[in-house]
C-alpha cells in the first residue's frame, strides 16, 4: 500500500496529455502542431503498449485532487522516450515547492521516477478538451486502482485597462450659461474691459462704488455631452482683474473650460463680487468677499452634484492673478487661519465667516488640487495641514503680484504700500510646500511679467497652451492615483486593493496560481521555482479612469 501511496502522489504527472489551448498562449501553441487534438480520446497503456510522448501538452498547468490531496503539475519536456516535469502538492504554505519527475519507457515498461524512486506503472486515461480523468496503479499491484480527475488551470479573465479620458479631447460640449449659485450684497460681478489702464478704470468708476446692491452670483457650466459617467471631476476657474475688472466669459477662461470639458471634466467659470472704494479697507474687503463667493460656488456645485454629474470628492480649482489668490484662499484658508486684516477691519462681523455668504448649501466636498497662475497667499502658514497638491506658474518679472514675496503693484511703490499688504507669490509657495513635502510643481516663466499667457489683444499665446498641458497632466496624476496592493493580515497569500471607487477589477499572477477572487481581494499560491513573482491588478474607476498596478512578491 505504501508503494501505491507513492504512486497516487506522482501519478498526477501522467495527466498532461491534453492539447487544450488557452487563448493567451495561442501563438505559442500554434508552434506545437504535433499536439493531441482537443477531441476526446482514451489511451490505455500496459506493458506491451507504446505511446508517442511528443504529443503531450507542455504548455499548460493542470490542477486536481487524488484522495484528499490537491496538486498542480506541468510537463516541461516530452520526447519519444518519455516525459519530464514537476508537480506541486498544496499544503499549509502559500509557496509551492516543485518536485521533479519523469516517466520513461524502459524495456517495454513505463517507469515513474522521482526523488530517487522508480515505480512501474500502468494506466488508462481519457483526455477531454480541458480535463483529464482515468485510473492507474502500480504494475506490480494491479488491485489498488485509483481514480483521478484534473482540470487545466486557467487564470481568471484579465486585461490591462487603458483610457484616454481626461487626457484627450473626446466630447462635444454642452454649455449652461448664467447658473445662479447665490446672492450677495456688492458693487458688481462683471466688468469686461480690453485695453484701458487699470488705474484709469478705477478713477472712472468711482461713482459706481457709492452703494452696494443685491447681486446674483452666476457661473457658466460646461458639460461633456453624451457622457455616460455619472460622477465626473469638477474644475472651477476664476478670472483675474485685481478684484475690479473681468468676467467669466473672457476668452482665456472659456477656452480652458471647453478644453477640459472635452476631455471629460465638468467645468465652471464663475463671476464673483468685485469693486472697491479707494481705501485699503475696501480693497481688503473686496478680496475677502471674492473668497466667500468662491466658497459659495463650490458648495452650490457640490450640492447639485447629482444634477450635473459631479463627483464632489474630486474638485479641482484654479485661477489667474486675483482669481488665483481667491482660489488658493478658498482651498487653504480656514476661519481660524484667516489673516489679521480680517479681524482688524472687522470683516468677520461685517461679512461673516468664509462659508456664511451666498447660499445656505453646506455639502461635503474635497478639493484635490489647485492651479495657481501668478497668484499669492497672505500667509504661508495657511498651507500647513492641508496635503493638497499645487501647480504654479509665474512670470519672473511680475511687478503686480509678487513672484516671490512683497507688496502687490510694486511697480508703483506708493500705490502698492498704501493699499496692499505683503503677500507671498508662487516661488515662496513652492518652497514652503516643498518643506512640507506636499506634491507641487513650479514653472517660472522667465523674463516676463504679469499674465504671460495672452498677447496684447488678450488672446491665448504659446504660453497658454504650455500651461494647459502642464495643468492637465498634473491633475490627471491625482485622478488616477490609486491605492497599493497590500497583503491581508493573517491570510497568507491573500492580497487586497483598498480602493472605494473601483468599478471593474481584474487580477493576474505571474509565478503563481490564483485560487480565488472576491470583492477587492485575491488569493494566490506562489511557485517557489518561478523566476519572478508578482500580482497585478487592472481595472476602471467610477470616474472613468483606468489603472494598472502591481506588487512584487519575494
Task: Note down, in words, how this protein is organized.
The chain has 554 residues and is of the alpha+beta class. It folds into three domains: 2-152, no CATH class; 173-479, 3-Layer(aba) Sandwich (Rossmann fold); 485-552. The protein has helices spanning 2-10, 26-29, 198-204, 251-263, 280-303, 305-308, 322-332, 340-344, 347-350, 413-419, 426-435, 462-479; strands at 41-45, 62-66, 69-79, 82-89, 95-96, 98-106, 109-114, 117-127, 131-138, 146-152, 173-186, 213-224, 232-238, 266-270, 310-320, 367-373, 390-395, 405-406, 423-424, 440-445, 485-487, 494-497, 502-510, 512-518, 521-527, 534-541, 546-552. An eight-stranded antiparallel barrel has the order 2-3-4-6-7-8-9-10. Strands 11-12-14-13-15-16-17-20 form an eight-stranded mixed beta sheet, with helices on both faces. Strand 7 and strand 8 (117-127) form a beta hairpin. The chain is elongated. The two termini are 39 Å apart.
